[in-house]
Design a protein that fits this description.
Layout: H1 3-6, H2 17-35, H3 40-45, H4 51-56, H5 72-79, H6 82-109, H7 127-130, E1 138-147, H8 155-176, H9 178-181, H10 203-228, H11 241-254, E2 275-277, E3 285-296, E4 301-307, H12 317-328, E5 334-336, H13 344-352, E6 356-357, H14 369-398, H15 410-450
Parallel strand pairs: 1-5, 5-6
Antiparallel strand pairs: 1-3, 2-3, 3-4
Amino acid sequence: MSWSITTPSQFFKGVRSACQAFSHGPWCLDHQGALAGHRRRARMSRSRKIPYLQFFLGLEGFQFEAPFDPSMMVYFRRRLPEKTINDCNERIVRHGKQQIAQNKQGDNDDPDDGDGSVPAALERPSQDAKAPKRHQGILLIDATCVPSDIRYPTDLSLLNEARETTEKLIDEMHKQVRDVFGHKPRTNRRQFWRWPKKKRPRLSKIRKAIGQQLRHLARNLSSIECSDRLRCKSFGGWSPLVSQAVVRQQKILYHSDTRSIQDRIVSLTQPHIRPIVRGKTRNNVEFGAKISISVSGDGFAFLDRLSWDPYNEGEDLKSQVRTFHRRHGFYPKVVCADQIYRTRSNRALCMRHGIRLSGPRLGRPKNDPDLVAAEKKIALDDQRQRNGVEGKFGQGKRRFGLGLVREKLAETSGCTIAMNLLVMNLEKLLELLFVLIAIFQGLLMVCIASKRRPTLLISSGLSLATC
């Protein structure tokens, strides 16, 4: 597979194919090394020792020096947004499926058992089977949350972290404005540790501690603003906007009865993360990006939506059905989705395009027991097929990096999530290729057992010896 196939021309306009390989190759090596448990530097240093990894990266010859530094992965993430990775994912899956179909079609023309007959499993499809259909395949859709690597946030710990950050900033700024500003502003560094030492502090004590942290943090911010007017140019006019937003939100929560607020900040280092209420038994609230994926009937996963703010995934069914039609050229025959997707608008869309949406239909149940039993059987089969998308979530979170995203920026985290799905599809293509080779080996063993002399030629260039 050429790297030019996997890279959009409008993104790398005027760039060599080697640069295209260096944009995607390190990602594949990074995620493959993560499966083996290697550290990032160890993953990247493997390309210095193994020749086929350098060939995979697009190098013309073997070299003893490392092709790139491990820190270059940050620049790769910033250069490749998730939209570009999704486009590359579709190109790879489309090209891989075409190659596998050509291999199967080429191999079906060659086998011969000696008497001129062709096995039924290898017969060519009829013209009716080749005719394009309006509805084909199954579409599996669902949404999940990809947790980020942050500490579990509480109001008190978040305020204390903001206070410590502002105190460090005051210490650094006071060294430069000491002659003009005078004495260093007063800070409170030990008062917070009275409350974490208690095993079960009362709510009144926690509220008192939150009030104290709010006052300390407000005083630190006012000191920073005062010294910022007399600052040295080395700080570049930077102001702690995140800490100010945290104080503003916590004051609203402190003086009101509500416990929720819009665009709530749960991390100072990653202010783009929002709490995602999932309602699961294990984790009721998760902190990370919420994604909606669609899985085709042959097991390939695609990222349809990524958002750091909570949203209703039932609104994505319309766009996912249209995207399926754009990818494959036809609408799915069945859409297997959860109960949240079965709204009236989604049902009307599926009915208008002739698509069957999984789940019970609206209205009273039929009086015919045979019809009711048939509907229950269809619903059970749809539920079994929908387990495929749940399996993709489990595969991505256990084997790949969707279980915990360690990147700090929003764009780099989105690139990591999209790249994990791309590597999962590469694993699926490799699995299909192994299955195809296993089928050829099985046919070869059958030929040896029956003492016949057919010749099997694999269109990819691999030829098997004559029996």
